[in-house]
What does this fold into?
Amino acid sequence: MLMRQPEYLPDDYGAIKKKIDSDYSANQAIWQVYWTEATLDTRLEAGDSSLMADLNQQLPNNNRGNFYFNRVRPICNMVSGFQRRNRKSTVVVPLENGDQQTADQLTKILLHIYKREGVYETISDAFHQGACIAGMNLLQVYMDYSKDPVNGDIKVDNCSYNSFFIDPYFRKPDLSDCSFVWRRSYLSHTAAAALIPDKYDEIMALPGNPTGTGRDGRFQYMPESYGQTQQNRLAYDEYYYRDYRKQKLLVDKNTGETLEITERQEIDVDEFLANNPEVTLIEQNVPTVRMAIMIQDKVFYDGPNNLNIDTYPFVPVIGYYNPMMPYFYSRIQGICRSLRDPQTLLNRRIVLSADMLESQVNSGFIFKENAPVDVKHLFQTGQGRIIPLKEEAAMTDIQAIQPPQIPPSFFQLQDTFSKELMLVSGVNEELLGSAMDDKAGILSALRQGAGLTTLQPLFDRLDYSQNLLGELIMRVVQNNYTPGKVRSILEGEEPAPLFYNKAFGKYHCMVEAGFNTESQKQMQFAQLLQLREMGVPIPDESLIEAATIQDKDKVAKVMMDKLQMASQMQQLQLQAAVENQQAQTRLAQARTIADEGLGYERYSRIEENKALAEERKAAAVKDDQMALLNFAKAIRELENIDMTQLQKIIELQKLLSVTEQSKIDKQNPPMAQSGSELDRGVNLAENRSF
It folds into this structure.
């Protein structure tokens, strides 16, 4: 790795060299056992055929112990494959009243680093190698100054189990109680000299390992330690250990805000305290992590951490962790540790089954001495075997041995050992995708959920490690990236006012797992889509703006044209509706006015109607009087008419009635009346005439 180290101290490194050697001597025996067990687990997952011969010495000879039927790798690949398919992204979320702008900017920077440096792939590799196989790997954060000599680029490296040596008595996953971490790499002379350019000549003069000599006997399980014919390599060691440093801290007694004074800040403390009487200066010792660099067992640097942080630049990725165990090799385990015995027994059973089936073909012969011509004929295989006998031998002098019958329980036991692999690992057939029974879909889903429940501790520890890694990278960004670097990553956006406030990361935000997407745009799109599915009215324009699709401008333009057309149609419809409403309003007003006028008119005619009624009453009385007068005149005239003349008038009246009735019958033929009805009509007419 390419790292730029701080300025170097004088070459008096006797104390730190003594501490390094002391830590190794005190803990080497503990780590030696763990390395041995972890190496066996690694060989088990890799399918090393010689491992079976080492683990199972009781198998018969003739190389039958070298066969290895690997059932461990599919199980480990299933667990790590599930993690890869369901990766989570690291995002910064503000707490309660936290600053959303600062959290969004930190999220953009984290996603930028993770995407550019392939951090998610590194996390998955560490999970597969650590949690599934060896038990623990370390994720190391470091700065690479090869492309950016001012700010550097943050990178994350995966440290395998055989490349680090740490305090075996740590208990906390964040290494807050760990006293030291030692990581080794093997580099060429030029690569090591590039890391410490001030010591170029001294590093180039160091003896390498052309023939395997000059090794210090440490980290024996690294691949470079096995390569006896390797090229010149230098053992490059980074030793991190806990210590204390002096801190100058400005504290606001009213608000509780703090500001640490560092060498990178240009602040006149006396003037600042004079202008701000509510601020006080506190000098104290705070815990920190120092770093020493040792090349070929020679210390070249011992000083502050090159990342300008007070914590280890490591995040452990652990499988099964039980701090109560007294033995370190049992305290940290992977999935492979519990699969070792079932895999060994299953492999032994498969080999014995094959051996027994082969022995069925030729179980051997019982023969008298000197009966066959040549004993080699008894070992013939295949079709057309011949066994010649001597002339004086009888046919009964040689007999084939009948092979014993193989009990069915022999093969059932093999299935039992195969199922043990699933039981001890917590993985079922549904998770492996190899279930053969016809079960309902809901039952299969329940089985998958049950299998994932047994593996949930592994995924929870990985989520916690990923959050620790996000917090570590966030602190490194705040302590090392200049505003210009931040502005370039944010595409011209200025850093928020609280971006460099270290208290923000502690009190105002948290790192949590979110949608795993290739960029923040995809994450924003996934979040908006989820909100819409939950019922939040997210507009289509926001979804298109956040979507990472090809020809997004054309799609957005088409959508805008349709929206404008729809908006125009809506405006026309709204205008027509408004005009219709106005017309209806005017019509209602006109009707109201007309009704009011009609009411006034009717009210004004009340008196006229009363007078008219009185007049009509008077006219009715007058008509009654005239009718009475006419009746009296008629009676008087009847008295002067003789009977003959009256009879003629009546007959004339009847004739007129019959003529009128005949006209009515012609107009309505179906309603023809009978003679009696006609007579009644005539009589009625007469009566009326009378």
